[in-house]
Amino acid sequence: MFEKIKVSKYLAYLFLIIVSAIWAIPVLFGIVTSFRSQTEVVNEGFRLLPVNWIVENYVNILENTSTAPIMQWLWNSIFIATMHTLLVVVVISITGYGYSRMKFKGRDLLFFTLLGISFFPNVVNLIPSYKIIDILGWVNTPWAMIVPGLAGMGNIFLVRQFMKGIPMELDESARVDGASDFKIFSRIILPLIRPVLIVCGLFSFTGSWNDFLWPVIVYTDVNKMPVTAGLLLLQDVYGNYRMIGQLMGSAILAIIPTLLLFFFAQKYFVSAINLNSGIKG
Question: PANTHER family of this UniProt entry (predicted)?
């Protein structure tokens, strides 16, 4: 029995190593390629390390403020993802409170109907969503990416289920003392649901940062694009990437914010699998 457990443990480690390698090798190759010249990339093909290490790719990235302003794109992405995350936390916390603590006719029917609708692929909503954004005059503005998706039913579901683990006796005791719904929410519920809000916020930030299809549709102004849409401009009219080193350098710069976010908040990502209830018994 002990030997079987030991073998299973080694197999699990082997699997994790393989998965880690599948993820890490392309990233390492991108980092190395960002220090290679275009001539070397074309003539030498795949190499583990560059023949000559250069930093011109990064210099050109930082100096380019017209055709491919990478730093402006990064700032746009940071602003959009941060604002989207903050508003998501506000919306899902209030909505989750309504669906879990307040009683009104058709509450559960409404919730599960919206939850069912959310299972439709997002691509189905692209044309209607763009039409709404266009009518509101939000094309080529940050609001085109900040507002859509604020009330994601997946996040609301997590918050609702988390709140259901908080005893209703806390609400009833507060009401006996004359507390309103707003005071119960802000003073009692909100501090208790902080773990699930952090997790939803982290996923919302990474989701907004990595979004590609939607920003390509709603942005045509080069200076207002987020970095995911902007990187597409580094290819020519035939769809070929002219400067592979600069492309790799830009991609590496684009993943740094989310990489730092994961390193500093990885314990909250891991805690996502333990979000069973608001108060553990």
Answer: ABC TRANSPORTER PERMEASE PROTEIN MG189-RELATED (PTHR43744:SF12), ABC TRANSPORTER PERMEASE PROTEIN MG189-RELATED-RELATED (PTHR43744)
